[in-house]
Amino acid sequence: MSKLPGWLGQLGAELTRMGERLEERRVEADDEDDKAAREGSSATARTEPGGGAAMGAADHVPPPPAYAPSVAARPDPVAAIPWGMRVAAEAGWRLLVLAGTLWVLMRVISAVQLVVLAFVAALLVTAMLQPTVARLRRYGLPRGLATAVTAVLGFVIMGLVGWFVVWQVMDNIDTLSDKVRTGIEDLKNWLLDSPFHVTDQQINDIAKNLSDTVGTNTEAITSAGLQGVTVMVELLTGMLLAMFSTLFLLYDGKRIWHWVLKLVPAQARPGVAGAGPRAWRTLTAYVRGTVIVALIDAIFIGLGIYFLNVPMAVPLAVFIFLFAFIPLVGAVVSGALAVVVALVTEGVFTALMVLVVVLAVQQIEGHILQPFILGRAVRVHPLAVVLSVAAGGMIAGIGGAVVAVPLVAVTNTVVGYLRSYGQEESQRHAPPPHGSTALDAAPTPAPGSPPDEIDDGSDEEPVADAPKEP
């Protein structure tokens, strides 16, 4: 009995060693399973696209068998869209942003149309008067006195021209009315004797219809008259705004321009600062050239109308001068007005002679005066002129038609300068050429020039040749 505890102790020790050996074998089996799982996941990542992203899922999903069919991967959606469609989409949303910006800008301009047109008119008048201010300052006058003298003289001359036109119209209105009645009577007799077989009853019916139309539309005519009063009030307001704007632009134009430059981002400021003076020179050349051409047209066409005994020759010449500021369209309208007045008052022959005079002067203007006076400073394609005048007339009436062409000319100058400036800046900041490119960019000698006169672009001083030994 004394040996029983010793046996029990040996049995317990044996059982403990067996448990440890079982635990070691279980740990080894777990390690082998983990190693096999890692090898299977790495093989799956090598055989399938996108396997690196699915590394975590490969621990639980076994690899497909070898006999399973291969499934093609879906392409990237961006790569599936054609290149042309992507370019169209990129251009489309940018065009939509530009169109929205222009629409908002036009809405704002239409809301303050009177102020915008007055300021643009002030710019045109300033471009016409600013050389006079500069000339007076060169003669020694102070800036304020030179501005006051120029503005007063300019406004007085324009006011006298307007008063003279109104006076001539009021002075000749009775004579014009009598001649219009006589012309209508002559036209009626001509229609009765013409081969068109027009009867007196038909002419009376046309006159009665016109009278009935005027009687039934009395309210519309009255409202149009009230609108005319409103237009006159707006016109006077615009004239006052233009006068004050002209005074400040003549006196403080440079300071106003410098203040505007401060609103431009710093990176774009040098380009805008260079484009501004060029745009102003273009506008000044356009206004002065247009004034000279319009004055020549008015003088020669007015003289032709005067010698043909057409009534109101001076007011018609002034209208021709004013309408000359609307390119192409203004010449047609003013010439047609002169021909109609000559037709109603003096007859068909006089009207034909006036038409010949108008066409001759306009041909001289288009082929000689404008290329010689305006030159290349404001050269704009005729299609651009027609489209801009039409668009300006549709947006802002006569005022829009007047400012459309100078706006297009100034825009053309600014865009051309900014394009050249951008190209120069890109070349200035580009890395210097090297390698074969540097050899291609190196200067080549002119034909017949000695090799020692070649400029290689380096700033090093030339080394003198060593004296030859005897």
Structural description of this entry:
Helix content is 77%, strand content 0%. With 470 residues, it is mainly α. The longest helix is centred in the middle third of the chain and has 51 residues, at 143-193. It is elongated, with a radius of gyration of 44 Å. The protein starts with a helix and ends in a 29-residue tail after the last helix. 17% of the residues are buried.
Q: What would you call the structural class?
A: mainly alpha
Low-pLDDT stretches: 47-58, 449-470
Kindly provide the radius of gyration, computed on alpha-carbon positions and rounded to a whole number of angstroms.
Answer: 44 Å
- Residue fraction in strands: under 5%
Helix percent reads over 70%
Number of helices: 13
Main β sheet profile: none
Total number of beta strands: 0
Mean pLDDT: 74
User: For the terminal residues, how far apart are their CA atoms?
Assistant: 133 Å
Q: Write down the secondary-structure element order.
A: HHHHHHHHHHHHH
Overall geometry comes to elongated
